[in-house]
Automatic annotation (TrEMBL):
SUPFAM superfamilies reported in the protein's UniProt record: Restriction endonuclease-like (SSF52980)
Higher taxonomy: Bacteria, Candidatus Woeseibacteriota
Organism: Candidatus Woesebacteria bacterium GW2011_GWA1_39_21
Pfam families: UPF0102
Protein family per UniProt: Belongs to the UPF0102 family.
Protein name, entry field: UPF0102 protein UT39_C0006G0036
Example GO molecular function: nucleic acid binding
Length: 118
């Protein structure tokens, strides 16, 4: 049976959540949506709030997953972050964008990388 894109996204986000937890991040929100876009995972660590974009590929025929996070995608993420921060009352920590790039081959995680975008 083929997985649909929603199922694949959930699998990718599960792998990403495990990686974040393993590296000491505290997950505070998932799948935050606005009219500008979606933030897959919001996490905190060391005084920063990380807005995570999870990119999972099921092979490399379309390139590496991090290549899909281009300027247009980053602009949408930044607008969504601004909206997220406006919705939260009180103080917040410094914000950073974190791309979690993953490749899954034959049902197993073959590649995973955390990339902080400055």
């Amino acid at each position: 049976m083929k997985k649909n894109s929603s199922d694949k996204g959930k699998v990718g986000e599960s792998y990403a959540s495990l990686l974040l937890k393993k590296n000491g991040y505290k997950i505070v929100n998932k799948n935050f949506r606005s009219r500008f876009g979606e933030i897959d995972i919001v996490a905190e660590k060391d005084g920063y709030t990380y807005f995570c974009e999870v990119k999972t590929r099921w092979g490399v025929s379309f390139g590496h997953p991090e290549e899909a996070v281009n300027k247009l995608k980053l602009d949408k993420i930044k607008k969504t972050i601004d909206y997220y921060l406006q919705q939260k009352s009180g103080s917040y920590t410094s914000a950073r964008i974190l791309v979690i790039a993953q490749i899954i081959n034959n049902g197993s995680l073959a590649y995973q990388k955390l990339i902080i975008v400055d």
